[in-house]
Design brief:
The protein is an alpha/beta fold. It has eleven helices and eight strands. Bound molecules: acetoacetyl-coenzyme A (CAA). Pfam families: 3HCDH, 3HCDH_N.
Length: about 280
């Protein structure tokens, strides 16, 4: 089916980036969050990030105005029901996602495709609790969404070919590249990336190197744009730990055990940039 309008649930770091790329690619966007503060902050971020694109000559002021006018915000989940595609980008807690999908159900159009931006939860399990497992997929964007070229497409066991093809076309329209991943814990990117960050935590925990030397080693020695501890702070150490737990529980292999130092930082509330403190101090 042809997709023209998109509902985005959750106006956080991922949600505002997703709204940004869809609006600048010509889609009508309805952005939903329970918090007015989050919605206002998200629009502010999109305004700022698109202004930067104009300043760099990557977009005209006219195109920016048109993109911003395509984003509407709402507290009402029901207002997303008429869109062609819904992307859930709320908190990474399964009970929250289940509640959102249940809340959406009464107003959803028969053909609307439902997706989740989950970074690790089972798509098959999320889909099975909705009325449309055939029109449900994992649609995983990377942070920062306007910059990162990849989108992971994860089919649940019941996802139809038609749903997959529709989302593949959407990814092309966004100017991004799709990678298909099977529905196993943490898919591809996080299956490889998060254990690397966890291993960097072990290197720090065991005294192999300091925060500065571990990050410098991977930046200069492996050409990564950010060191693994800096990247952990950027993603959120709580998110990294949640993904390690999904890998550990789902694959039952001790190689995925979360580093005790990572657990301690999360217990302290030192979860990275968003908290002002993680492996680095952002105050
Ligand atoms: N929103 C929009 N644009 C942004 C941005 C943001 N939050 N942050 C940076 N940018 C843009 C800048 O405008 C700039 O654009 P141009 O090159 O066109 O001028 C570009 O990104 C580079 O930014 P900077 O020069 O300010 O900074 P940088 O060179 O240090 O790059 C970075 C910043 C792009 C974040 C880079 O450090 C990077 O690629 N880091 C790794 C990011 C990464 O690995 N992300 C994946 C995380 S895993 C994930 O998302 C999956 C999950 O489920 C956990």
């Amino acid at each position: 089916m042809s997709i023209q309008s998109v509902g985005v649930i959750g106006a956080g770091q991922m949600g505002n980036g997703i709204a940004h790329v869809f609006a600048t690619s010509g889609y009508d966007v309805v952005l939903n969050d329970v918090s007015q503060e989050a919605l206002s902050a998200a629009i502010g971020r999109v305004e700022k990030n698109t202004a930067r694109q104009v300043a760099k000559g990557a977009m005209t002021e006219e195109a920016r105005g048109a993109a911003l006018a395509r984003i509407r915000t709402t507290h009402e989940l029901g207002e997303l029901g008429g869109t062609d595609l819904v992307i859930e980008a709320a908190t990474e807690r399964e009970e929250v996602k289940d509640q959102i999908f249940a809340g959406l159900a009464p107003s959803l159009g028969a053909d609307t495709i439902l997706t989740s931006n989950t970074s690790s939860l089972s798509i098959t399990r999320l889909a099975a609790k909705t009325d449309r497992p055939d029109r449900f997929m994992g649609f995983h964007f990377m942070n920062p969404v306007p910059v990162m070229k990849l989108v992971e497409l994860i089919r649940g066991i019941a996802t139809s070919d038609e749903t997959y093809q529709s989302l593949l076309s959407v990814v092309e329209n966004l100017g991004k590249t799709a990678a298909s991943a099977e529905d196993y814990p943490a898919f591809i990117v996080n299956r490889v990336l998060i254990p690397m960050i966890n291993e960097a935590c072990y290197a720090l925990y065991e005294g192999v190197g300091s925060v500065a030397s571990i990050d410098a080693s991977m930046k200069l020695g492996a050409n990564h744009p950010m060191g693994p501890l800096e990247l952990g702070d950027f993603i959120g150490l709580d998110t990294c730990l949640a993904i390690m737990n999904v890998l550990h529980d789902g694959l039952a292999d001790t190689k995925y055990r979360p580093c005790p130092l990572l657990v301690k930082y999360v217990e302290a509330g030192w979860v990275g940039r968003k908290a002002g403190r993680g492996f680095y101090d952002y105050h």
